[in-house]
Amino acid sequence: MLNEIPPIVRIPAVSREAQIGNVFNHVFSVMFQTEQTDLSHGRKVLWDFSDCNFLHPFYLAALSVLKTRYNDSIICIGIRPIIQSYLDVVHFATPLEVSENGEDKSLWHYYSKKTYLPICVFNPQNRSSVVAQELVQTTVRAQLSGNQAVFSILSLLLGELIDNITDHSSSKNGFLFCQLLPREGNLYVYIGDTGHSIYSSYATDERYENLVTSAESSALALALKGKSTKNRPENENRGYGISKSRSLIVNGLKGEFFIISGSAFFRHDPAGELLVDLPEPLRWDGTVVLLKIPTVIPPNFNLYDYIR
Question: What is the Cα–Cα distance from 86 to 245, expressed in whole angstroms?
Answer without folding.
Answer: 30
